[in-house]
Amino acid sequence: MKKNLLSNKFYWILLLLVVIAVNWLAEQVPVRLDLTAEGRYTLSSPTRKLLNEIEEPVQIDILLSGELPAGFKKLAASTDDLLREFKAVGKSNIRFQFIKPGEGLNDTAKAILYDSLSRLGLNPTNIKAQTKEGEGQEERLVFPGAVVQHKGRTTAIDLLQGVSAAGGLESLNTAEALLEFKFAYAIKQLNQDTVPLIGYLVGNGQPLTYQVQDLIENVLRKNYAFRILPIDSVGLIPPVFDALIITKPTTAFSDEQKIKLDQYVMQGGKLLWMIDKLYAEMDSLQRTQNEFIAFDRALELDDLLFRYGVRINQDLLQDLNADKMPSVIGSVGGKPQIQLLPWFYSPLLSNYSGHPIAKNLDYVLTQFPNTLDTVEAKGIQKTILLASSQQARTLETPAKVSWNSVEKEEDFNTFNKSKIPVAVLLEGKFTSHYANRLSTEQRAFITAQGQTINTQSPESKMIVIADGDIALNAVTQNEGPLPMGMNPYTKFQFANRDFIQNSIEYLVDESGILETRAKDFSLRLLDQKKLEESKTNWQLINIVVPILLMIAFGWAFHYFRKLRYQHK
């Protein structure tokens, strides 16, 4: 029967119908296998849930088309793979295309387009790209990002934001690991019709100057409903606030104010603390004779934080892995010679716990940070988010701050402490600091606000950072407010904005999208030593084996053909 079927001149029609049927079945019941150990091509449950809930089309324009260097080509290919997975789940509601910005436009229109992309937060990178073969290279601007449109709203994704620019292959690998989070987060932001309400607490010296311009305008107002909340303007903090931010207070908190914070936590409120326990400022160093003594601000928050499970220490952290500041190294002809040198009071912090808030982030810049310790607090889970490098030290109070804190070669040996914590996440059911301690007047005050006195919170979270400057931005005379985490001298931007935004998002978002930041993309590099040792063998295999296979195939074909016709 098989012989009769193949000998029929119309057998190809049946074969064509079978192929069409198999393709139709594959489209109706898609089967996708991810054979990578880390699940590189498997979407997380929160992402799949988000894509399944989309009711209107999402248009994604990826600005990585045309001739690109190998690194950008690899990033574009990974983006294409991811968005195909998005489309497999979201089906017709996910539409994407790769475009080359400005292609076919005149110079004026191109300049307008580039300006629009910059306003969206996509910063160009100048590269040299191959034109046509034999025509050399051309310089062009590349915007390593994407523009996402949904429900009449538009946002931009910078594929390299928060990733170190000096990490080479590791940086590109990190950028690929963050692709799912960045695209899913952008779609979630555009798809939601209501946003969490975030309060910026004032009343204890918290800054409301240009130093918080980036925090307020580019993080809080951009992504959330936002209100400035004077703590003394309310009887109790209303639970309508999904989270409160406490940024670098400089004056003491009264018992009445601490009761307000404590009862807010007991109602399930989330807090982001950014605290400078000691007074240590660059202005003080510049005004004095190159040194000063850092002293306690006496904020009166120790007892409250201790109850919640953390203690901010009365010390300053120094780290050999630090940002650079201009320093005078001598003089020539009566003119000072200035050079950028590491400023050990500005440690660059990293994440070692693998928590999605800070995983795959570039360094986070700090200024005169303190250290912290976790303490016993029943039912509270603690996760260190940021810590020093393995070459750090602490200066105990009274700490003398000076330009020349390291004078001799032997001083470097004192940087022998490792991974000293500066930021911690606390999760669980918090116990009230005022449990069984409220006076009759304090109880009457709380109940008069129409609120029940709680001694334990529901499941909640808070983040404590022992540095008040982590969310502040520098302000220069010529450029005004700079982005958060940017060094005003080198113009390098660290990942402070991403860290603060991720922290707030983790506190208020229940979708779980942030968990996708914890993805690992293993970079499997060849062993260079083994490669060099077996280089000749592999060259022979790659050259000789294909030739031998072709010869063997030709001989076998000729041999069996000869046997077939001899038999006939």
Q: What do these coordinates show?
A:
The chain is of the alpha+beta class. The protein folds into 2 domains: 157 residues, Glutaredoxin (3-Layer(aba) Sandwich), CATH 3.40.30; 323 residues, Rossmann fold (3-Layer(aba) Sandwich), CATH 3.40.50. The chain is 33% helix and 24% strand. Strands 8-7-9-10-23-22-19 form a 7-stranded mixed sheet, covered by helices on one side. Helix 4 packs parallel to helix 6. Keywords: Membrane, Transmembrane, Transmembrane helix. InterPro entries: ABC_transp_unknown (IPR019196), DUF7088 (IPR055396), Motility-assoc_ABC-rel_GldG (IPR019863). This is Gliding motility-associated ABC transporter substrate-binding protein GldG.
The CATH architecture assignment of the largest domain turns out to be 3-Layer(aba) Sandwich
As residue ranges, the low-confidence spans are none
> Which overall shape is indicated by the principal axes computed on the Cα atoms?
globular
The count of helical stretches stands at 15
- CATH topology (level 3) name of the largest domain: Rossmann fold
Major sheet: arrangement of strands: 8-7-9-10-23-22-19
Distance between the termini: 21 Å
Give the % helix.
25-40%
Count of folded domains:
2
Mean pLDDT: 85
Task: Find the structural class using helix and strand composition.
Answer: alpha+beta
Strand segment tally: 25
How much of the residues is beta strand, in percent? 15-25%
- Characterize the main sheet: 7 strands, mixed
CATH classification class of the largest domain: Alpha Beta
Query: What is the alpha-carbon Rg in Å?
Result: 30 Å
InterPro entries: ABC_transp_unknown (IPR019196), DUF7088 (IPR055396), Motility-assoc_ABC-rel_GldG (IPR019863)
Protein name: Gliding motility-associated ABC transporter substrate-binding protein GldG
Keywords: Membrane, Transmembrane, Transmembrane helix
